[in-house]
């Protein structure tokens, strides 16, 4: 048996702001027969064609991957009408967010984003040595883009727009976004984080794919983690001006995107596989609408929901409501004092959710 214990103190000088960072939170595991609705994951395992491509790639993992993910970039480039150099692939879009922030920000520079939004943003900004400028969401839980434009200073290097916003679900409209882009100086980078783009059904919402080539300072970020069900292999992509992507390429840790991940993503884009994946997305979008309407009928105030999740503004009762859900087998993401984000998952989870929440309005 090993008897030595690891040291619990150190004299090594670590960056104090890093030591103070909370670790990235993942939901607790769901109880047996329960539902894990805390990470906005796709409830289905991969379609056969994708699973087979991943298994085949696994047989060659003694070799390093293609560092540039060229084949996947070519497929995506064709789809978005850009050159392969106009696509950057990363180890999940969270890695790409970090790469862009590192590419644009020096210590002391500012990154503006709405709050509450994706929990990873503050940590990524701090790691880059930059400063977060958080602009409160509007009363309807959406971005206040006018206030975000007002918050831009000489030190601002990046503005992150998350649509639909995680965790509140509210999208930015195309009109709002265009007005906003007119106000942002062209030498500041705008990251449009569209991790949930494929679930959007509201035609007024911004669609980054229609904006490509229109703004010299706009990068659109998407992922295979949600609609394409590949959260576990880590692959996302960015589309934008080549010099900005080149800079972000330089801030990546080399070889972060595995061949297993790109094989899965390439297979997911093949016609037959993608047709089934997008059919599942439709099912989830319909399920989201039904869940939101049922919750509103119960008396809950649910903001516009365009991702694969809904937001319950539970305020001071957040911990209590999350606990009641957990007792019923549902793990949701609680933001104490604020609200609860519940992913749209398995069909059977909807009934459980509704029966618990009915008594808690
Ligand atoms: N952006 C947003 C808004 C997200 O919610 C997530 C995942 N929770 C990500 C980016 C990162 O996704 P991934 O790294 O899996 O691509």
TrEMBL record:
Database matches in SUPFAM superfamilies: PLP-dependent transferases
Domain Aminotransferase class I/classII large: 33-356
Domain of life where this protein originates: Bacteria
Keyword Amino-acid biosynthesis belongs to the record: no
Listed cofactors: pyridoxal 5'-phosphate
Residues found modified as N6-(pyridoxal phosphate)lysine: 226
A UniProt-annotated Pfam family: Aminotran_1_2
Chemical reaction(s) catalysed: an aromatic L-alpha-amino acid + 2-oxoglutarate = an aromatic oxo-acid + L-glutamate
Enzyme class, UniProt record, top EC level: transferase
Keywords: Aminotransferase, Pyridoxal phosphate, Transferase
EC number(s) recorded for this UniProt protein: 2.6.1.57
Transferase recorded as keyword: yes
Subunit and interaction comment: Homodimer.
Annotated family: Belongs to the class-II pyridoxal-phosphate-dependent aminotransferase family.
Function: Aminotransferase that catalyzes the conversion of aromatic amino acids and 2-oxoglutarate into corresponding aromatic oxo acids and L-glutamate.
Protein name per the record: Aromatic amino acid aminotransferase
Organism the protein comes from: Agromyces tropicus
Lineage of origin: Bacteria, Bacillati, Actinomycetota, Actinomycetes, Micrococcales
């Amino acid at each position: 048996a090993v008897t030595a214990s690891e040291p619990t103190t150190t004299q090594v000088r670590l960056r104090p702001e890093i030591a103070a960072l909370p670790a990235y939170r993942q939901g607790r595991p769901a109880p047996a027969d329960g539902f894990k609705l805390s990470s906005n994951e796709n409830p289905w395992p991969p379609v056969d064609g994708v699973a087979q491509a991943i298994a085949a790639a696994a047989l060659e993992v003694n070799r390093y991957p293609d560092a540039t993910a060229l084949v996947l970039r070519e497929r995506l480039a064709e789809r978005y009408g850009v050159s392969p150099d106009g696509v950057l692939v990363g180890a999940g879009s969270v890695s790409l967010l970090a790469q862009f922030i590192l590419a644009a920000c020096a210590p002391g520079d500012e990154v503006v984003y709405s709050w509450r939004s994706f929990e990873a943003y503050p940590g990524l900004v701090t790691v880059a040595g930059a400063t977060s400028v958080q602009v409160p969401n509007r009363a309807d839980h959406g971005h206040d883009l006018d206030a975000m434009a007002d918050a831009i200073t000489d030190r601002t290097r990046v503005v992150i727009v998350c649509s639909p916003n995680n965790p509140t679900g509210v999208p930015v409209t195309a009109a709002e976004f265009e007005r906003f882009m007119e106000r942002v100086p062209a030498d500041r980078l705008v990251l449009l984080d569209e991790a949930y783009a494929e679930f959007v059904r509201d035609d007024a919402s911004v669609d980054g794919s229609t904006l490509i080539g229109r703004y010299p300072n706009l990068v659109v970020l998407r992922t295979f983690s949600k609609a394409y069900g590949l959260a576990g292999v880590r692959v996302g992509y960015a589309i934008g001006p080549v010099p900005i992507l080149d800079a972000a390429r330089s801030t990546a840790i080399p070889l972060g995107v595995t061949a297993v991940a790109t094989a899965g993503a390439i297979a997911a884009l093949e016609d037959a596989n993608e047709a089934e994946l997008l059919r599942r997305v439709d099912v989830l979008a319909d399920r989201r609408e039904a869940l939101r309407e049922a919750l509103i009928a119960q008396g809950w105030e649910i903001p516009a929901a365009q991702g694969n999740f809904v937001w319950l503004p539970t305020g001071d009762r957040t911990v209590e409501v999350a606990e009641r859900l957990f007792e019923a087998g549902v793990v949701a993401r609680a933001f104490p004092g604020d609200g609860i984000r519940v992913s749209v998952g398995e069909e059977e989870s909807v009934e459980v959710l509704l029966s618990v929440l009915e008594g808690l309005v």
